[in-house]
Amino acid sequence: MSEQSLDAVRMPAIYLSHGAPPLADDAIWPGQLAAWSTELPRPRALLMVSAHWEDAPLALGAVETIPLVYDFWGFPEHYYRVRYPAPGAPALAAQVRKLLTAAGRPVQDVPDRGLDHGAYVPLVEMYPEADVPVLQISLPSLDPAELYEIGRRLAPLREEGVLIVGSGFFTHNLRALSRDGSVASVMSEFDAWGRETLAAGDVDALLDFEHKAPAAHAAHPRTEHFAPLFVTLGAGEAELSTQRSVIDGFWNGLAKRSIQVG
User: Fold this and answer.
1) Sign of CA dihedral 256, 209, 37, 134
2) Quick one: DSSP state of residue 239?
3) What is the pLDDT confidence band of residue 7, given thresholds at 50, 70 and 90?
């Protein structure tokens, strides 16, 4: 990969709120994601860390194009017909393996694991031609400090033109979903705290968000949708002062804040 990346543009690291399959039908959100991708340098490959794949030790998904994982239930049939045949990224997988094993972190291969909706739902909007190689890796833990360290280890990939994408949801409590546009105070309070804490670059508070953030357990009864943020922050550690929210606001009562570092 490095031999092919001598002229690669250094990429930022991003965290995005990926929504559910109906994101594609939203009047605003798909356009926001599409506009974001046009502002980014063209990536040579995408490294996705989705809230919807937890596996330890850290797992590398398929390195060739295989069917998507439709990891949701009860939706209209057309959401199960979506295809996203992006090229695989075997060279990127080798580089990830090298970086992590050099740090003493075991890595496993799961070659039959396709992209889940945390990966392909936003990518359909951002890179609709499915012409950028994609590798998905698992969350081996929900521990913020561990995920931050993984992001730090993966940071050199940015120099090779790899866009590191943490994909979750800035608040994620399905009991707080609303169809009328109303936003529960616990969602708005957590989102405001997150915005302010990110802007301040207070990594320690973010890593300890379960104790420092208001309504943390109401905003995230389980933390897997916030967890990918820490991979992004670790990958962008040297440039946290550049952090900015690219997308904000709420979707069906949940905060869709999405950030870019670098």
Assistant:
1) negative
2) G
3) confident
How far, rounded to the nearest angstrom, does the alpha carbon of residue 110 sit from its chain's CA centroid? 19
The secondary structure of 83-128, three-state, reads CCCCCCCHHHHHHHHHHHHHCCCCEEECCCCCCCHHHHHHHHHHCC
Q: What pTM was estimated for this model as a whole?
A: 0.96
Burial of 205 (0-12, 13-18, 19+ CB in 10 A): middle
**255 DSSP β-pair partners:** 250
Distance separating alpha carbons of residues 228 and 193, to the nearest angstrom: 18
User: Which of 126, 146, 123 lies closest to 135 in space, CA to CA?
Assistant: 123
Distance from the Cα of residue 177 to its chain's centroid: 21
Give the number of C-alpha atoms closer than 13 A to the C-alpha of residue 28, restricted to the C-beta side: 7
Q: In this structure, are residues 226 and 193 in contact, taking their beta carbons and an 8 Å threshold?
A: no
| pLDDT tens track for 12-58 | 999 999 999 999 999 999 999 999 999 999 999 999 999 999 999 99
The predicted-structure confidence for 191-237, as pLDDT tens digits, reads as follows 999 999 999 999 999 999 999 999 999 999 999 999 999 999 999 99
β-strand pairing of 162-168 with 45-54:
parallel
Cβ contact 126:33 at 8 Å: yes
Instruction: Kindly tell me the sign of the dihedral angle through the C-alpha atoms of 130, 16, 41, 35.
Output: positive
